[in-house]
């Protein structure tokens, strides 16, 4: 792969799916830290429609009524049983710089699923054109996928995946203002 300047740039992961184990571990820890007294689980779901995974693996009584229509293939899902509800987190992993096409995919998934968290991660970070749109032109508004009670927005969280540290690079995070304190 070549970066925008034309020099070779390689990923520590030869395939996107090779990111999954590290991201699964990170997401488990991330959710456990935010919901310490809750039952937290994560799974790789890239090969099957989310509604099938949910039907076969979870107590769906805590999900929104429309869960059976979630015909999307999310790379990774996390779920938290907290009191009488279930909170979801979804992650899309990319092994190329994150583009507007990638962002649009996760935005569509998030508008349907309405997760607590939605992450878009790549060891290459954000492509220059998307960086220009989100940062230079200050268009973080396109990251919003829902409004929660109180008028706060939930937004996609776009970040570079640090393969060495096996976590997101916090200095690379791009998200809506309402999400900043939640990550």
Number of helices: 4
How many structural domains?
Answer: 1
* Overall 3D form: globular
**SS content category:** alpha/beta
Concise summary:
The protein has four helices and eight strands, in the order αβαββαβαββββ. With 183 residues, it is an alpha/beta fold.
Layout: helices, strands, pairs:
Blueprint: H1 20-34, E1 39-44, H2 50-57, E2 76-82, E3 85-93, H3 100-113, E4 117-122, H4 128-136, E5 144-147, E6 153-155, E7 157-162, E8 167-168
Parallel strand pairs: 3-4, 4-7
Antiparallel strand pairs: 1-2, 2-3, 5-6, 7-8
Describe this protein's structure.
- By secondary structure, this protein is α/β, with parallel strands linked by helices.
- The chain has one domain (21-182).
- Helix content is 25%, strand content 23%.
- The protein contains 4 helices and 8 strands, in the order H-E-H-E-E-H-E-H-E-E-E-E.
- The protein has helices spanning 20-34, 50-57, 100-113, 128-136; strands spanning 39-44, 76-82, 85-93, 117-122, 144-147, 153-155, 157-162, 167-168.
- The strands form 2 sheets. Strands 1-2-3-4-7-8 form a 6-stranded mixed sheet, sandwiched between helices. It has a two-stranded antiparallel ribbon with strand order 5-6.
- Strand 5 and strand 6 (153-155) form a beta hairpin.
- The chain is globular, with a radius of gyration of 16 Å.
- The model is unreliable at 1-8 (pLDDT under 50).
